[in-house]
From TrEMBL:
InterPro entries: Asn_synthase, Asn_Synthetase, GATase_2_dom, Ntn_hydrolases_N, Rossmann-like_a/b/a_fold. The keyword Nucleotide-binding applies. This is Glutamine amidotransferase type-2 domain-containing protein. Residues 1-95 form the Glutamine amidotransferase type-2 domain. One of its GO terms (biological process) is asparagine biosynthetic process. GO terms for cellular component: cytosol. GO terms for molecular function: asparagine synthase (glutamine-hydrolyzing) activity; ATP binding. Pfam families: Asn_synthase, GATase_7. The keyword ATP-binding applies. Keywords: ATP-binding, Ligase, Nucleotide-binding.
Length: 238
């Protein structure tokens, strides 16, 4: 059934190319589980670097295999569950198969010579690829160098398309990062959005963040709290 979503191409591409060729044709982050109408054929796969979460579980009684994007979904259902490894796929016939190996892990790999122009062109190509989307696109500004460089490349590309670039920043009042992000947004000429949260708001959201993050690791929780507010800010703007 046609949907208008870019995800619609996944199923026919898998059927036409098979697992390895299909996955190597994908560019970006993903965690997918595909099946045919009767469930005889199943493909589960995770992106090259494991950016998107995916877990695999087993039940001993019937030998069933389960997949979920959150570990909590498998607790109480599966007898065992673990993280689905990055750069792998799973089928009923083959089990787990590694489909992606970074080129720097290959025997005899020799790094290319340092050439700033190569890095710049690779970054420009990567940014342009990420602008291919069937939904709105925005840029998260941290106030640092990385997001500023991406914005410098992204802004003229958006203008070429006749679209306005929206940027988003979160932080606490008087944060130097928020001030820097405002300057970057002004330089880029973006429609800038920000949300300033207090320490009290941050503490109040710890339980929610731990629930979604599925870890108590202090550094991860601390960094995830601002991202929680950032996700809400972006969502509020569609």
């Amino acid at each position: 059934v046609p949907t208008g979503s870019d995800c619609e191409v996944l199923l026919p591409a898998w059927r036409k190319l098979g697992p390895t060729r299909f996955l190597n044709a994908l560019n970006g982050m993903f965690a997918i589980v595909l099946t045919d109408d009767d469930g005889d054929q199943v493909l589960a796969a995770r992106d090259h670097a494991g950016i998107k979460p995916l877990y695999i579980g087993k039940t001993h009684a019937d030998g069933a295999t389960w997949f979920a994007s959150e570990l909590k979904s498998l607790v109480g259902v599966c007898d065992e569950a673990k993280e689905f490894p990055p750069g792998h796929y799973w089928t009923k016939e083959e089990g787990l198969v590694r489909w992606y190996t970074p080129e720097w892990d290959a025997p005899g790999y020799v790094p290319s010579q340092r050439d700033p122009s190569i890095v710049k062109e690779a970054l420009r190509t990567a940014v342009r690829k990420q602008l291919m989307s069937d939904v709105g696109i925005g840029l998260l500004l941290s106030g640092g160098v990385d997001s500023a460089v991406v914005g410098e490349l992204m802004a003229p590309m958006m203008r070429e398309r006749g679209e306005e670039l929206h940027t988003f920043t979160i932080g606490q009042p008087d944060s130097p990062d928020v001030t820097a992000a405002r300057l970057i947004a002004k330089h880029l000429g973006t429609e800038h959005h920000e949300y300033l949260f207090t320490s009290e708001e941050a503490f109040a959201r710890i339980e929610d963040v731990v629930y979604h993050l599925e870890t108590y690791e202090p550094e991860l929780v601390r960094s995830a709290i601002p991202n929680y507010f950032l996700a809400r800010l972006v969502h509020s703007h569609g």
